[in-house]
Every structure is written in C-alpha cells, then in structure tokens.
Write a structure and sequence with these properties.
alpha/beta, N-(1-d-carboxylethyl)-l-norvaline Dehydrogenase, domain 2, binds NADPH dihydro-nicotinamide-adenine-dinucleotide phosphate, single chain, three-stranded mixed sheet, 14 helices, Rossmann fold
Length: 295
C-alpha cells in the first residue's frame, strides 16, 4: 500500500515507524530535517510538500497539533488537496476539533476522497508498542478501509460514529485526564502538607477507590522520581480540554468542572510555556503550597 504520513512529532514519528514494513511509505514534516532523520532511522522516503505526499499516497495520515494546522496544509498550491487523487483515503490522527473535521471531510468529498478522524490515545509509549486506542469518526465503509492501516499502530480500533465523533471522544477523554491530573496533584500535595509521605499516600490511594491512571501510572513513574520528559505538551492538553468544553457547549451541557480545569490548564500553559510537559502542571500546585510529591 502507498501510504503517506504528515507530522513526525512526539507521537507521529513512532506511529509512522510501524508503517515502514509492508508499505511504500512517504513522510512529510514541516521541519524537513526531522523527516530526513526519520528516514535514516526507520526507512521510507521523505517528500518536500504535503502536495507531493498526497500525490504518492493511496492512504494519507495526518498527525499535527490541532485541526488548524491540518487545515493549514490542505491547499495553497503545495497542499494535500493540490495533489490527492480521487479514491484515496485521508485519516486524521490529530486530536482535533469535530466541527473542523466535518469541514475538512466535505472538502475531500468534493474530490471523491474519503476521510475519517482517527485520534489516538496511549501516549508515546503506546505508540512505540503499537498499542494505541484509535477512535474513528467516519461512515461505515471508510471505517472498514481504515482498520487495516490503523492496525499498524493501534491495538483497539473503535468506530465512534460519523465524522467528528472520534475527535469528540478523544477530547472528552483528555478532559477527564486533565481534571484528574489537577485533582490528584491537589490531593497528594494536601496529604504531604498534612504529614503523610507522598509514596505512602500514593500506595494507599492506589489500594482505594480514589485511584486512577494518573495515580497508578503517571505519578509513580514520573512525578515521584521528578522526571519530566516532554512526551505530551501541556499546550496540547489545554487544546483538548477546550475542544471538550466546546463539544459540551454545543450540546447545551453545563460543565463547571471542565471549565475550571480548562482555565487552570490555560494558566499553567501561559506560565510554563509551549514546550512544557502536561504533568508539569502539578509543579504549579506544589509551588503554591510549598511542598513536593517526591519519593
Ligand atoms: P508535537 O508537538 O510533538 O509535534 C507536532 C507535529 O506537527 C510536528 O511534526 C510539527 O512539525 C508539526 N507541525 C506543527 N505546526 C505545524 C504547522 N503549522 N504545519 C505543519 N506541521 C506542523 O505533537 P505530538 O506528536 O505530541 O501530537 C500530535 C497530535 O497527537 C496532537 O493533536 C496531540 O494532541 C495528539 N496526541 C499526542 C499524544 C502524545 O503523547 N504526545 C498522545 C495522543 C494524542 P515540526 O517538526 O516542524 O515542528
């Protein structure tokens, strides 16, 4: 299969690496050096524009920060729509916006190109292990076409509904992750200040009903040992929670908890910058309280 992959970022690169074997893979990245480095390490070939990528691909995958960047590489002479052939399939693995995806799908449909939103969950470790969950928004026929290629990096591939439904699912998932990071951070810092050592607090929490993915995996592996590799930028989590609050607003659902989490994450992003990791939001809770969740 001739596959094209656009966006070799923290999660895009390990996803694309699984597509080298068994496919004729072309990759494009805004910063070309990154595409050359990918090809040296994994194989495939680098192309110079989204248009060239689209000319090559029967199936084209995008994995950019948000729908805005995806819309930014659609046209203008060197864009995907400038090169794509009728009958191709575009899968957007960006954690994007449902409304934008419906617009994008309509533009591809004009060229007889099928489109699905197919955001992923499972982090960079999950991508490396080809163990991602993929949440697909598309018609049923497009989903069937997408599954074999998504299998390269996805362990669980779920059809969520029409175009946009995958992005809505992903945004809500990450909104819950955001709420949980803040809540676990506040809870553990409170316990440290109350005199309970953080490792003990975590041990008991994880044997009790307040436990979660954050307390069972993220805090023990990254916060307790004070290691902050940038695997998922805080800016991207902030974007996801905003998408979730928009989805809720469109459904006239009031979400005071999500709104507050969104406000706090936006403030953390403003303070820590665009390159901070998402778990670093916990540092701000610690700084305010003057206590650390450390082992
Ligand atoms: P990164 O910030 O690491 O990478 C972003 C990629 O998009 C890079 O290839 C970057 O190119 C490219 N890019 C940025 N701006 C533009 C632009 N204007 N035009 C074209 N290309 C652009 O992001 P991630 O790989 O972490 O995330 C990608 C998507 O996957 C996001 O939607 C994110 O929310 C989602 N996601 C991420 C997870 C993670 O653990 N990291 C987990 C699950 C989902 P360049 O190299 O030139 O900067």
């Amino acid at each position: 299969m001739r596959v094209g992959f656009a966006g070799l970022g923290a999660i895009g690169a390990p996803m694309a690496a699984h597509l080298v074997s068994g496919n004729d893979l072309a990759v494009w990245n805004r910063t070309g050096d990154r595409a050359e480095a990918f090809v040296r390490e994994h194989g495939g070939r680098a192309v110079g524009s989204p248009r060239e990528l689209a000319e090559h691909a029967e199936i084209l995958i995008t994995c950019l920060p948000s729908s805005r960047e995806v819309e930014g590489i659609l046209d203008g002479g060197e864009g995907i729509l400038d090169g794509i052939r009728p009958g191709s399939l575009v899968l957007d693995c960006t954690s994007g916006d449902p409304g934008a995806s419906r617009r994008i799908a309509a533009r591809f449909a004009e060229r007889q190109v099928a489109f699905a939103d197919a955001p992923v969950s499972g982090g960079t470790d999950g991508a490396a292990a080809a163990a991602l969950t993929v949440m697909v928004g598309s018609d049923a026929e497009t989903f069937e076409r997408a599954v074999p290629v998504l299998r390269a990096f996805g362990r669980r591939i779920e059809h969520m509904g029409p175009v946009g439904a995958g992005h809505a699912m992903k945004a809500v998932n990450n909104a819950l992750l955001g709420v949980n990071i803040l809540a676990v951070g506040e809870g553990l810092v409170s316990l440290v200040k109350a005199g309970v050592p953080a490792p003990k607090a975590l041990e008991v929490l994880n044997a009790s009903s307040g436990r979660s993915f954050v307390s069972e995996k993220l805090v023990p592996e990254r916060v307790l040992p004070r290691t902050w590799p940038v695997t998922f930028r805080l800016a991207l989590l902030d974007k996801d929670v905003r998408i979730a609050t928009n989805v809720a607003e469109q459904g006239q659902v009031q979400t005071p908890v999500l709104n507050l989490a969104s406000e706090l994450l936006a403030a953390a992003r403003a303070q820590l910058g665009e390159e901070a990791d998402y778990l670093e939001a916990i540092k701000l809770i610690e700084a305010q309280a003057g206590a650390e969740i450390a082992s």
